[in-house]
Amino acid sequence: MSEHILFLTGKLAEKQLRDMLEKMQPEFTYTVHQLGVKVAALMTADMIGRRLHDTFGADRILVPGRCRGDLDSLSEQLGLPVSRGPQELKDLPEFFGGKAIEHDISRYAVKIFAEITDAPQLSVEDVLKRARYFRQNGADVIDIGCLPSTDFPHLEAVIAALKQAGFTVSIDSLETADLLRGGKAGADFLLSLHESTLWVADEVAATPVLIPEQHEDLASLYRAVTVMQAKGRPFIVDPILDPIHFGFTASLVRYHEVRQRHPDVEMMLGVGNITELTHADTLGMNALMLGICSELDINHILTTEVSAHACRAVQEADLARRIMYTAKAQQALPKHIDPGLMALHEPKPFPNTLDEIKEWAVQIKDPSFRIQTSPEGVHIFNRDGFYTAIDPFDLYPSLHVENDGGHAFYLGVELARAEIAWQLGKRFTQDEKLTWGCTNQAVAATVDLHSFKPVGSTLKKS
Questions:
Q1: pLDDT tens for residues 112-122?
Q2: Looking at the domain assignment, is residue 346 inside a domain?
Q3: What angle do CA 219, 190, 246 make, to 5 degrees?
Q4: Residues 330, 367 within the same domain
Q5: Closest Cα partner for 437 from 277, 281, 333?
Q6: What pTM value is reported for the model?
Q7: Are both 183 and 300 inside the same structural domain?
């Protein structure tokens, strides 16, 4: 026996909802009930509790996505499960088609090494503050960068403070003296050793990251791998990722060659050479780099947040690694898993066509302005008229709010949001802020990223 769902809606959306359900031809049966409120989004749980006197034999009730109030209490009152549908009616088919798929993005395979590049110039407390910020945004290892020809007298104190605070630490330098000091102070990883400096690994317990002795010299890297394998020591291999126009494509080929030759060794990719040295939005770059990591089973990345445009690189990489892990586990494309990396665009920016908006607009009988967007532009309408423009300033003469400062201010803010959304291809919903993916998520408002444990990132003795 199929499920029977009661859809609650308002006067303006009732026809559109009925048409949508008829086109869907769902496997469930349904009843559409108009609750006596004009705008469905204004519905509340208390209102439903007062006005709904018949549940029409439903097995469950679906209310508009913007319905406010305590639905758990309403469910108890009505004796039926009550849940919210999508915020936009246009998303109803996808809501039901994808409802059974709940993507778990708590797992990942890639460890993020977040480098504090100017550590020698920071106090111990400032390093700790930066490290806490990186950890809150997803970093697994705090990489302490050493600067060329720069004294670092408090190196040991920095590492000791980080270890005492529970951080995993790497020391990053091409000077063996720095690496020895860092390893003896308790660093967990050494970035980086090559064939001629492998002796440092014999002096300390830290895991070395191996690089070619000379740039592009994979033969020296392979010899270093052979030495470490013979000693039975864990290690990570980094063939070195080069910036665009300075060997980027060739360096990707090297990563692929190393993986083909050594299918089981742990590898590292320095994504900072792309995110920092390319003036483009870093979300897409991180998604692509973590996709490469997923394909090549690279389980460590080194990233930085030095340039202003790369200020959220760690957070973006954290989400990207989770999306790629989930997609790979499901043998699927990295689509429709999590929208957090789509800050500037959205898969479905315009929920309604211009004709559908106009059809809704003719039903408006009050003076309150509604604002919507379609591919044709920004639309504002009430009982007195329907106006469309690309530039909100072109709409001002038609709105007649010259003597109402508060109303003019409100419309200015909403129309500006609508214009930005239209320009970028984002979803605009009146009275709601635009969403910008993971780029503006406050750490305190997200899940505790470090309650999750990495999967499959334990170093192997190759």
A1: 999 999 999 99
A2: no
A3: 50
A4: no
A5: 281
A6: 0.78
A7: yes
